Amino acid sequence: MNSLVKQFTWVLGIVLTLIGIAGFFVGDTLLIFHVNTIHNIVHVVSGLLALLAVSMGESVARLYLIVFGIVYALVTVLGFVMPNGDILGLFTVNDADNYLHAVIALGCLGVGLGVRK
Length: 117
Description:
Elements: H1 4-23, E1 29-30, E2 33-34, H2 37-55, H3 58-81, E3 86-87, E4 91-92, H4 95-112
Antiparallel strand pairs: 1-2, 3-4
Helix pairs in contact: 1-2, 2-3, 3-4
């Protein structure tokens, strides 16, 4: 695994999967981030999809990062504009979540759309 795309996607997949699992063992907050069952499931599924994408090669990992980055950018915007951080009635987020989602979106899009060989 020598490309930045694959390394970034692999790390993202591991972290999201572990955070999603950890979220099931805490209350409504994991460190400073708001979590609930749906939020945890989204993290686990997103993480496992990232790991699957890496296993399928660099082009699939790159596509994953781009799509995931767009989705997280949308979630970031919704988190800031929806009342009480309610994301389409599915889960709620706090400001810490919003800023983290923005960083993840920028990282995914930056690496996914970055310079190619």
